Each structure stands twice: as C-alpha cells, then as structure tokens.
Amino acid sequence: MTTRPSWWRGARTVPEVAWRARNPWHPTGAGLALLIMGLAIFGAGEALVLRSRIGNSPWTVLAEGLSRQTGLEIGVATFVISAMVLLAWWPLRERPGLGTVANVLLVATALDVTARLVPNATPGVSAIAYAVGGTLLVGLGSGLYLTTGLGSGPRDGLMTSLHRKTGQSVARIRLAIESSVLTAGWFLGGRVGVGTLIFALLVPRAVAWGLAGVAASAPNRSQRP
Predict the structure, then answer these.
(1) Contacts for 1 with CB less than 8 Å, ≥ 6 apart
(2) Is the CB of residue 115 less than 8 Å from the CB of residue 48?
(3) The pLDDT of residue 215
(4) Which of 97, 120, 121 is nearest to 39 (CA)?
(5) Which residues are paired to 26 by β-bridges?
(6) Which is nearest to 108 in space by CA: 68, 24, 50?
(7) Neighbouring-strand partners of residue 220
(8) Partner of 19 at 20 to 30 A CA spacing, among 111, 119, 149, 214?
(9) Is residue 3 scored above 70 in pLDDT?
(10) What is d(CA 209, CA 7) in angstroms, rounded to the nearest whole number?
(11) pLDDT by residue (tens digit) across 99-157?
C-alpha cells in the first residue's frame, strides 16, 4: 500500500495516480482535463508574479525582456521562447508528449489573458501578496500537470536531456539554465527584484506542496478502473 505524503512536508516524487497516462500521447479523460487546468493555473501564477512588479521568475524575466525589445505581448514572447527551447530538444533527442505541446500553447495563453485582466499590484504588502500567491499557483499548477504523465514542458525537458548528455547533476544543470536565462532577460530589460528571490526560494516547496495535495486527494494507480 502506498503511503501518501504529508501535505506540509510535500512530495519528493511525482505520485502514481489513477489518471496518469501510460503513453504521453494517449491521455485519460481526467488526465487531459487536469493537464489543461494545471497549465492554465501555472500561467496565471506567472502572470500574478509579473503583475507584482517587484521581479519575475527567471523565464518570465527573459520573456518580459524580449517583449520590451520587440513589442510583442508578454504571452507571445513566452510562446516564442518555449518554441525555441523545444527546437533545442531535436539535437538532444528528447521526445515530446501531448503535455509538451499543451505547455507551449496554454501557459503562454493563460499568462497573457491573466496579465490583461489583473491590475498591477500597489507597492508594499499587495506586491508581496501577488508574488507569493503567484508562486503558490505555479506550484499547484505543476502538481496537477506533472501527475498526468503526458510529457515534460520545454524547459524541464531541456534540463533532463542535458543531464543525460553531460552527466552533471539535475540541480547543477537547472542552476546553469536558470542563471543564464535570468542574466539574458535582465540585459534585455526584464524586471529582476524581490519577487524573483521569492519565486526562487518558494517555488521548489510550492511544487512539492502541489504534488502532495494532488496525491492526498486522488486515487492511486492501483485503484484505476
């Protein structure tokens, strides 16, 4: 019998749940719904961090910098970056899934729509609340879409493929990618600040909480009809 993780401590691994697909291109009905919901929540969370105006997540720093340099909407810039990262998978022989394609489309769309609807935070407590709340939403969204087994997003796939190719630890690869993206975005004019620090410190725990919350409320694979 699988022991469910403590919600407060968070999950250390992606739980095996009933809706997890056995093939990344053949989702279960529940898995497809949760994939869409999770990616939409993820994008909305990124938008809240953006609207905090006290700093973005590293990839949104890059997207905002690209937006400022090109005049593209922030969601369109996010889509372009995700598509470029996805192209980098080809020489690394990383295999996409339905969730990979959905990630490129839905995160950018949800970010753009939410950023249009949500006003900028006022300085102070409101800005901190936006940054913390947005980061928690990113964690919840991750917890939902990662459990579907429909393929990693472009950024995670780049990380895992470079890990396999180089033999370096996942943590070291992730640090190198995030640092490079953050630096490039900052040079392009993306916003770096307290919100960036909040995201960097809180998002690993937020993802673990999201996974644990999903695991606590979902039937495991052995209960799959």
Answers:
(1) none
(2) no
(3) 79
(4) 97
(5) 23
(6) 50
(7) 17
(8) 111
(9) no
(10) 6
(11) 999 999 999 999 999 999 999 999 999 999 999 999 999 999 988 998 999 998 998 88
Closest CA to 163 of 153, 154, 155, 173: 173
Altogether, the residues listed in the chain come to a count of: 225
SS3 17: strand
The DSSP letter of residue 193 is: S
Domain boundaries, the chain: 39-216
Using CA atoms, how far apart are residues 54 and 40, in angstroms rounded to an integer?
22
Over residues 154-202, the pLDDT tens digits come to 988 898 888 888 888 767 888 899 999 999 999 999 999 999 999 998 9
Total-model pTM: 0.89
Spacing of C-alpha 116 from chain mean position: 20
Supply 149's token pair. 């087994």
Please report, for residues 128, 156, 183, the alpha-carbon distance to residue 187 in angstroms, rounded to integers and kept in the order given.
Answer: 24, 23, 6
Write out the H or E segment, with its range, that includes residue 20: none
| Cα Dmax for the chain | 54
